[in-house]
UniProtKB/TrEMBL annotation:
<keyword id="KW-0505">Motor protein</keyword>
<dbReference type="InterPro" id="IPR011989">
    <property type="entry name" value="ARM-like"/>
</dbReference>
<dbReference type="InterPro" id="IPR001752">
    <property type="entry name" value="Kinesin_motor_dom"/>
</dbReference>
<dbReference type="GO" id="GO:0007018">
    <property type="term" value="P:microtubule-based movement"/>
</dbReference>
<dbReference type="InterPro" id="IPR036961">
    <property type="entry name" value="Kinesin_motor_dom_sf"/>
</dbReference>
<feature type="compositionally biased region" description="Polar residues">
    <location>
        <begin position="1"/>
        <end position="13"/>
    </location>
</feature>
<dbReference type="GO" id="GO:0090307">
    <property type="term" value="P:mitotic spindle assembly"/>
</dbReference>
<dbReference type="InterPro" id="IPR047149">
    <property type="entry name" value="KIF11-like"/>
</dbReference>
<keyword id="KW-0547">Nucleotide-binding</keyword>
<keyword id="KW-0677">Repeat</keyword>
<keyword id="KW-0963">Cytoplasm</keyword>
<dbReference type="InterPro" id="IPR016024">
    <property type="entry name" value="ARM-type_fold"/>
</dbReference>
<feature type="binding site">
    <location>
        <begin position="148"/>
        <end position="155"/>
    </location>
    <ligand>
        <name>ATP</name>
    </ligand>
</feature>
<feature type="compositionally biased region" description="Polar residues">
    <location>
        <begin position="39"/>
        <end position="54"/>
    </location>
</feature>
<dbReference type="InterPro" id="IPR000225">
    <property type="entry name" value="Armadillo"/>
</dbReference>
<feature type="coiled-coil region">
    <location>
        <begin position="518"/>
        <end position="594"/>
    </location>
</feature>
<dbReference type="GO" id="GO:0005876">
    <property type="term" value="C:spindle microtubule"/>
</dbReference>
């Protein structure tokens, strides 16, 4: 073999050790990264094409590491070469190999590892393949090749399965074992292709039918792939062993079919490793502050690497391996791939500008493994037999040249979008779950608050209702008791009055009994007022609580509605309570009033009169003018007229009755009348009259109107508001003498107003007044008589003033017969009013004729004689004397005054 300058030694330098020219031989494993080499040639075609954009930035140069392994003598050699020494002598501790030329000459070569015939499979794996496998796990491509003469142990070294003896397992099985231990089953994947290259044809050992697989090179990255080859996913060692067995079986079958030996073909096992890793965090200076850094989170990356294990065809020359029987073509082909590999290694070792990579399929296939961008380990196997010295020497030289080949190592990483998406999905799921959890917690909290609010509201409601009910009962009881006491007192007083004449004097000064009662009732009232205030406070509290709950409960619309209903209930309750309080007050007013009456009555010794305004208005005026207010007025101030008037429209009939009584009593006092009218009391009373429903209401309302009608301004208001026709209707409808008395009293008051004369007549007031005499009750008749007297007086005044002329409307309306008839009535008040009426009518000549015809003259004459009142007697006399017609008639009748 020609010396090519890469030989470690030459024959002339006996025993001298010459490391390879670029001998940066290291004993370190491939894992230690080497610094960029100064002798790295940028002109290399392989290097140029391998600067792929997918690879990480800077490549790391690394030399191909070469180990030599000596096979032990086999049985044949032990016998045949028994007298000869081995052609090699190993110095493993010095990592040297001496190749004997003859008995006195040898050449020494240095390798990265020298493995003796005693080296275990484990050690071979550790020094030759393990660094490569570790490198593959780190993301680099890696290649382990076995080169050597047939029978020297290439297959033994690489492909032994070690099924019976695990210590015999070769590099293939051990590599897979190591990979399986180090990858993650969840995120990483391993797949395997197993191929045979024979006669420049690639066959799939996992699918024998697939017998012409083409090599695809990525022009951009320079990556080599075999897309047509079967890729089998490996999950465990067993499945891998199965696969290797299957491949071996297919290899034998294929070689039998091709009538060749496996030693003539190259067996290639490709292990594809895909691992998910996280990139490094990147610190980026921020725009605003260059000294601070924004740390970009690590990117998910996928590292793809490939371990190629190549059991090369025997390196012996064809003729020597007994291939004479084969076609020349075949021999050429076998030689082609191996010799092309040799040529490439030479070119790479010499840093030649041209590396004939495309000359064979083997070199194309190993493009990125051997002399490309991979960590590569070569094991050259040799036999000990001196008979094969030449082949052994050639093998050794091949290994030596290979040691000079530098590889550029580049890690291959791709951005792992799939795993990023997966991670984001997981993160999203987590976030959604967290959000759902929080939402649920929030909902639970809202529900809890609502429930709590509901409980609290119902508790407050319950307490409030109970309290109200208790207070109401208590008030009722107290009220009943007071009434009872008052009644007892009244009975007692009456009895006293009957049985003891001079008790009258006592009663006069005896206010104390009543005053005590009034004081008790006042106290009660104060209590009621206090309770009402408390109730108002409670309602306000409830309102504010409701407001709070409304704020607190975000989703509590229904709850709020409930609370509102409850609140409305409360307000309703409160209103009822207030009404009850006012009823109590009004009842008290009533009682006070009645007591007052009683006292007066006892003082006068007469019978009680419920509505004093009609007969003795002056007594009321006197009371109110006497400097201190009556109890009624004082209470009226306390309660407020508006509130009492409101009660006139209450839903509760009882309340309405009491209210109208109170208004009537108040209206009896002149001092209150203005306020009542101002507050709309007159209108309310007229309304009651109109919407007749209850005799008591109507009677009392009419009484109140009668009292108000004492005031001239009110008289006009009554007229304006249609009061005359209302009173007239009531006058014709009503049967109750007291109602009629009140209506008659009201009309009688109106009759005293000069301005209302015509309206009274046109709206049926006079007819109504006269119609009421049907009742015959002296009180009613008395009011009718008063009305007629009032009316006649006004007419008389108007006639005297020249405002009106002609016959009296009373005579027009047919009043005369009743006037004449009543002039002799036994009841003094009736008689007196009629007497006055007759005098007024007689003052005008226009009435004289009718009066004479109607018999009024006789009555007037009687008045001049019998009337108990002197002033009326002289008035009658004067009137008769001043009238021509009366005088002539009296003359005719021979009457003398
Ligand atoms: P090759 O594949 O290089 O043709 P093989 O691996 O088939 O050679 O080996 C040929 C024979 O030598 C086999 O019987 C094998 O068992 C044996 N052999 C090879 N290397 C060793 C070794 N280191 N120790 C023991 N036997 C070996
Ligand atoms: Mg073999």
């Amino acid at each position: 073999m020609a010396s090519n300058g890469y030989r470690n030694g030459t024959g002339t330098n006996k025993g001298a050790i010459k490391p390879p020219a670029s001998s940066n031989i290291r004993s370190s494993s491939f894992k230690s990264r080497l610094p960029p080499s100064s002798n790295h040639s940028p002109g290399s075609a392989l290097r140029r094409t391998s600067s792929a954009s997918f690879t990480t930035a800077a490549g790391v140069p690394g030399r191909v590491r070469v180990a030599v392994r000596l096979r032990p003598r086999n049985a044949e050699e032990s016998t045949a070469d028994a007298d000869f020494a081995d052609c090699v002598e190993l110095q493993p501790e010095l990592k040297r190999l001496k190749l004997r030329k003859n008995n006195w000459e040898s050449e020494t070569y240095e390798f990265d590892e020298v493995l003796t015939e005693f080296a275990s499979q484990k050690r071979v794996y550790e020094v030759v393949a393990k660094p490569v496998v570790e490198s593959v796990l780190d993301g680099y491509n890696g290649t382990v090749m076995a080169y050597g003469q047939t029978g020297t142990g290439k297959t033994f070294t690489l492909g032994r399965l070690g099924e019976e003896d695990t210590s015999a397992r070769g590099i293939m099985v051990r590599s897979m074992e190591e990979i399986l231990v180090n990858v993650s089953r969840e995120t990483d994947s391993i797949s395997v292709s197993y191929l045979q290259l024979y006669m420049e044809t690639i066959q799939d050992l996992l699918d024998p039918a697939n017998d012409n697989i083409s090599i695809v090179e990525d022009p951009r990255t320079g990556d080599v792939s075999l897309p047509g080859a079967t890729h089998v996913e490996i999950k465990d060692e067993q499945s891998f062993l199965e696969l290797l067995r299957l491949g071996e079986a297919h290899r034998i079958a294929a070689n039998t079919k091709l009538n060749t030996e496996s030693s003539r073909s190259h067996a290639i096992l490709m292990v594809h490793v895909k691992r998910s890793v996280l990139g490094e965090e990147v610190a980026i200076p921020t725009e605003s502050d260059k000294s601070s850094h924004f740390v970009k989170p690590p990117k998910p990356l996928v590292r793809k690497s490939k371990l190629v294990l190549v059991d090369l065809a025997g390196s012996e020359r064809v003729q020597k391996s007994g291939s004479e029987g084969h076609m020349l073509e075949e021999a050429k082909s076998i030689n082609l791939s191996l010799s092309a590999l040799g040529k490439c290694i030479n070119a790479l070792a010499e840093n030649s500008a041209h590396v004939p990579i495309r000359d064979s399929k083997l070199t194309r296939l190993l493009r990125d493994s051997f002399g490309g961008t991979a960590r590569t380990s070569l094991i050259v196997t040799i036999g000990p037999s001196p008979r094969h010295r030449g082949e052994t020497a050639s093998t050794i030289l091949f290994g030596q040249r290979a040691m000079k080949v530098e590889n550029m190592l580049r890690i291959k990483e791709e951005f792992d979008y799939k795993s990023l998406a997966r991670r984001l999905e997981i993160q999203l799921d987590k976030l959604i779950a967290e959000n759902e959890r929080q939402q649920k917690a929030f909902d639970d909290e809202v529900e809890r608050i609502n429930l709590e609010a509901q409980n609290r509201v119902s508790e407050v409601e319950r307490n409030f209702t109970d309290g109200l009910e208790k207070e109401r009962l208590k008030c009722q009881m107290e009220y009943m008791e007071s009434v009872k006491k008052l009644e007892e007192k009244m009975i007692e007083n009456q009895q006293k009055h009957q049985h003891d004449g001079f008790m009258k004097d006592k009663c006069n000064g005896e206010g104390p009994g009543f005053c005590e009662d009034i004081a008790v009732i006042k106290k009660l009232l104060e209590k009621e007022t206090h309770m009402r205030k408390e109730a108002e406070k409670e309602v306000n509290k409830l309102k504010s609580q409701l407001g709070q709950h409304m704020d607190a409960g975000a989703g509590g619309d229904a709850e709020i509605l409930k609370l509102q209903i409850a609140l409305e209930d409360e307000v309703h309750q409160k209103k009822k309570l207030e009404e009850e309080i006012i009823i109590l007050r009004s009842q008290m007013l009533q009682l006070t009033f009645e007591a007052d009456q009683m006292r007066r009555c006892l003082a006068r010794g007469g019978s009680g009169n419920a509505y004093p305004g009609l007969d003795s208005p002056m007594s009321q005026v006197r009371d109110s003018l006497s400097g201190h207010k009556t109890p009624v007025s004082a209470l009226f101030d306390q309660v407020g007229v508006e509130k009492i008037l409101d009660l006139l429209e209450s839903e509760d009939a009882n309340v309405r009755i009491h209210a109208v009584k109170v208004v009537a009593n108040l209206a009896a006092e002149e001092a209150n009348q203005e306020r009542i009218v101002e507050a709309g009391g007159l209108t309310s009373l007229l309304m009651l009259l109109r919407s007749y429903e209850d005799e008591t209401v109507r009677r009392v309302a009419a009484g109140a109107i009668a009292n108000l009608a004492m005031n001239e301004a009110n008289q006009e208001l009554i007229m304006v508001q249609g009061g005359i026709s209302l009173l007239s209707t009531t006058a014709s409808d009503a049967e109750d003498p007291q109602t009629l008395r009140m209506v008659a009293g009201a009309i009688a008051n109106l009759c005293g107003n000069d301005k209302l004369q015509a309206t009274l007549r046109s709206e049926g007031g006079i007819k109504a007044l006269l119609g009421m005499v049907r009742c015959r009750h002296p009180d009613v008749l008395s009011q009718v008589a008063r009305g007629i007297a009032n009316f006649a007086k006004c007419e008389s005044r108007a006639s005297t003033n020249g405002i009106r002329s002609g016959r009296s409307l009373l005579i027009d309306e047919g009043a005369l017969p009743w006037i004449v008839q009543s002039a002799n009535n036994d009841a003094a008040p009736i008689r007196r009013h009629i007497e006055l009426a007759l005098c007024h009518l007689a003052q005008h000549e226009a009435n004289a004729k009718d009066m004479i015809n109607g018999g009024a003259l006789w009555e007037l004459v009687r008045i001049t004689r019998d009337c108990s009142r002197e002033d009326i007697r002289s008035l009658a006399r004067r009137t008769l004397n001043s009238s021509l017609l009366f005088r002539s008639e009296m003359r005719r009748l021979r009457i003398e005054l």
